[in-house]
Amino acid sequence: MSKVYQKRRQTLGNLLPMDCAIIIPGADLKYRNADSSYNFRQDSSFFYLSGFCEANSTMLIVNTNGVITSSVFVPRKDKLKEIWDGFREGPEGAKENYLFENAFNNDEIDSELPNLINGMNKVFYPFGKKDGFDQLVINWMKSAGTKDRHSKAIDIADGSSLIGNLRLIKDSDEIEIMKQAANISADAHMEAMKAVKPGMNEQSIEALYLYEFAKQGGRFAAYTPIVAGGDNACVLHYVDNNQDLNGSDLLLVDAGCEFKMYASDITRTFPISGKFSAEQLAVYNVVLEALHKATECVKVGNNIMDPQITSEKVITKGLVELGILEGDVDDLHQQGAFKDFYMHKIGHWLGLDVHDAGDYMENDDHMLFKAGMVTTVEPGIYISKDANVHDKWKGIGIRIEDDILVTESGNLNLTAKVPSDPKEIEALMA
Ligand code: GLY
Ligand code: MN
Ligand code: MN
Q1: Residue 390 parent element (H or E)
Q2: 187 catalytic per annotation
Q3: Per residue in 28-70, pLDDT tens?
Q4: Best residue for ligand 1 mutational test, from 209, 253, 254 (most atoms within 8 Å of Cβ)
């Protein structure tokens, strides 16, 4: 795998203008309380370009007249620290196992990095990404600029899009991992559908997901799961996950594992009793149609806003047919009347981050889909108990979310394994 990362560094280096450099900060260890840390997770871009997973590391890629050189600053080897916290590669290991041309201890960065960027026209780095890092870059640039009174000034530029737009198009190694991540999450959703019973608590269902993810190698969720019974589903970022489940309600679960650093992101909404009521089914079918029609728009050459607009139109029409909205469908769509019930966007890029890197705009317009992109498609309708509608609709919150890979010939639903068809859901729950 180290050759894959080396190739990505080469690709990024070749995107730099001649005699420019890019600095990529690694993640630091984060603490939950006092000195109890979270498990370390490497910064996604740093990982994408190295596969290297030690905290407090920094990477530098330099394009010198077309020759690409990668350097890394890593934690110093330290017998005592390694007894407490585990093995460190040190600079030698970073060169040998991760194929960097140069490697240093991270406590040498202030003296070594300025030498490596001295004489460059411009230095890119992701602006505002990491606390304190902007100041460090400025210090290194100042230090480089004062090495030689006659050296030229170095410009500075945001490198976020350079890296993000590389990450936007997934290579075959990434697609393989993302298929596995999606499969693990799909399996967990199916187990939850089989296990849920009235009276269970939302947090038991959350625990079931985490267990099912971990059983197949996805120890961490890619984001905090949303396990929302009934009206809780109308709180879009509900993560309390601590209420008892009512047999007459739906359960919305938005949960996906992280597998080998890659996210999956699935939402399914299913009846806690195992049977949809007539009203639940009516609303569900509108969301399902929006999912299907929006997914059909995800193909090479289409504008990324096509699924958005399609989903808005299907949901507006459906809400009118149910009598939840009144008026002309086109007028209501123009007015944005659907936003009372469908208030988020249709989806987002998916990859190492659940809301993945990569631009949405290109040349002052929205991007067109290209093969290798992965997007979620996640329409929803949320009718809270406070909504100004007939009582029979209140407390129905539904989202259905799939992960869609854009292929040369159309698209591939990575999460098709877990049913979204209501009959199939009921059959699985029976
Ligand atoms: N799970 C986060 C999202 O769907 O965007
Ligand atoms: Mn999502
Ligand atoms: Mn989601």
Answers
A1: none
A2: no
A3: 999 999 999 999 999 999 999 999 999 999 999 999 999 999 9
A4: 254
